[in-house]
Amino acid sequence: MTDSTPLFQPLTLGALTLPNRLVMAPLTRNRALDGNVPGPLTVTYYTQRASAGLIITEASPICPEGHGYPRTPGIHSAEQIAGWRAVTDSVHAAGGRIFMQLWHVGRISHPSLQPGGAAPVAPSALKPAGQVWTGSGLEDYVMPRALARDEFPAIVEAYRQAAINARDAGFDGVEVHGANGYLLDQFLRSSTNLRDDDYGGSLQNRARPLLEVVGAVTSVFGGDRVGVRLSPENRFNDISDADPQTTFTYVAVALRPFNLAYLHVLEGDMTGQPVTTPFDYPALKTAFGGCYMANCGYDRSRALAAVADGQADLIAFGRAFIANPDLPARLKADAPLTEADPKTFYSGEAHGYIDYPTLGAV
Ligand code: PHB
Question: NADH:flavin oxidoreductase/NADH oxidase N-terminal domain: which residues (predicted)?
Answer without folding.
Answer: 7-336
